[in-house]
Write a structure and sequence with these properties.
Layout: E1 4-7, E2 10-13, E3 18-24, E4 33-39, E5 46-51, E6 57-59, E7 67-72, E8 77-82, E9 91-98, E10 114-115, E11 119-124
Parallel strand pairs: 2-11
Antiparallel strand pairs: 1-3, 3-8, 4-5, 4-9, 5-6, 7-8, 9-10, 9-11
Length: 125
C-alpha cells in the first residue's frame, strides 16, 4: 500500500506562483510513474502533468510553459512548480502513483493505482 500526501496548496493572486509537493511512502518510489491531476467543482478530474520512472515528462496543453513537474527519488517526492497562475487553475490538486512499469496511460486517472487526498489551490483574479 502506497500512501501519498500532498502539500503546498493555498491562495494566490493571478500571476503568482505555488509549488506543490507530494511525499510517497513506497520503498520503491523510483520505479513509480507519478502524476498530478486537478478537479474543479462540477468538473471531471483533469490531467495536469506526469513524470514516468524513465523520467519522460508529460503536460496538459493548458499548463505547458507555466508548470514544471520534477521528482527527487532520494526524498520520495514529486513536485509541481506552478507559475503564472490563472483563475482557471483553481482546483483541488491530486498526486497519483502508478506502480506498473509498462503499458499504463499517463494522461487518464485509470492509469494510476494510488491517490493522495488533494490540496486546494485557489487563484484570485
Amino acid at each position: 500500500q502506497v500512501q501519498l500526501v500532498e502539500s503546498g496548496g493555498g491562495l494566490v493572486q493571478a500571476g503568482g506562483s505555488l509549488r506543490l509537493s507530494c511525499a510517497a511512502s513506497g520503498r520503491t518510489f523510483s520505479t513509480y510513474t507519478m502524476g498530478w491531476f486537478r478537479q474543479a467543482p462540477g468538473k471531471e478530474r483533469e490531467f495536469v502533468a506526469a513524470i514516468s520512472w524513465r523520467r519522460n515528462i508529460y503536460y496538459a496543453d493548458s499548463v505547458k510553459g507555466r508548470f514544471t513537474i520534477s521528482r527527487d527519488d532520494a526524498k520520495n517526492t514529486v513536485y509541481l512548480q506552478m507559475n503564472s497562475l490563472k483563475p482557471e487553475d483553481t482546483a483541488v490538486y491530486y498526486c497519483a502513483a502508478s506502480i506498473k512499469p509498462y503499458g499504463r496511460p499517463v494522461r487518464t486517472p485509470s492509469g494510476y493505482d494510488y491517490w493522495g487526498q488533494g490540496t486546494q489551490v485557489t487563484v484570485s483574479s
